[in-house]
Amino acid sequence: MHPDSAQDAGIDVFRVGDLAVDFVRREVRRGQDVLPVKGLSFELLACLVRHHPDLATLRQINEEVWGENVVTPAALSQRVKLLREGLGSSSEYPQYIEVVKSRGYRLVVPVEASDSAQDSFTAKPPQNIRYLVLIVAVMVIAFAAYLGLGGPDNDPQQASDAEFAQLPGAQAGLARDLGVSEEVYDLYRRATYHGRAYSVPEIQKGIGLLDRALELEPNFAHAYGARATLYAWSGTPSYGWMSPDEAFKRAREDALRAIALDPSVDWALVVLGDILLWHEWNAEAAEQAYRKAMETNPQSSGARFSLAFLMGALGRHDEAIGLALEGVELEPLKAGSYTNLGWRFIGARRYEEAIAAANRALELEPGMIDAIVIKTWSHTYL
Asked: Lowest CB count within 10 Å: 4, 132, 146, 351, which one?
């Protein structure tokens, strides 16, 4: 039903992607959260909803949002920017609103009428993505159990630069030219090291250290990126000490802050992609974030592995395997590179190759549970 027809029929709540837009209460919700979309921003969103799936022209927007007042293109552009910010989006990652240059704007997500004013719609993922995310959750739990039993033995305050260099996101920090004090740098380094343990207490310690670092240096992009990673982990089934909505909300805010401060922080883009995929089920926007991370840092293995998972979930197995192989080339001495590749082979039902990848992981890291799971799974289907 077209939104205009729905309103004529007395329906005033619309599902807009993962949002619920309530025309009576004049509010926008994502799950149970009310988003900061008020005044002219709400009027603009309502206009776009009414015209969906068609384009809302610049003239229509002017008449429906501002009435007889004529606004400049710059003022309209600024209002669109404010609306995107309220929705947790941006022009670089346009999850909801598309601009058609010199013509107008349109919503690029599904819009459906709802017959319940209490509808707090939460988007459901496509079935194949849900299934593979469940598999990954099992993998993460097993891998976390392994790391929890044999986590870092060294005191993180005594960790060497060589050890620190092996941790996610640490490469950019080793140069010591990040424009922060030694104290802030040390807090960041220790927090990243704690995150390596993949256990709730260690992740909480890491977040606490990053909180202190950001109190001392509020514009430290790398710290925001690192904290985004830890918050994202905190909302997963493995480390669910925070509600997913709260954890991923904080992760998203930190990731976007890191990107705004320093677009070269590629792993913040990877985390943003993970949030879009795991929590918001927006595969298209997640793919954009992963590819942007690869453009930002052509050596980003994390972006390739995350994108490989997404491609596999969408049934694009050749692309998934190709990306995972690129990741292996970039990180040939990390066991996790081969287990990632092994799961992509399983998705493509290439079980013998999955076993070979798992065996290579076990050579690098004997007893690795993730590799053992891959071998067991593969042998079941051979």
From this structure: 4
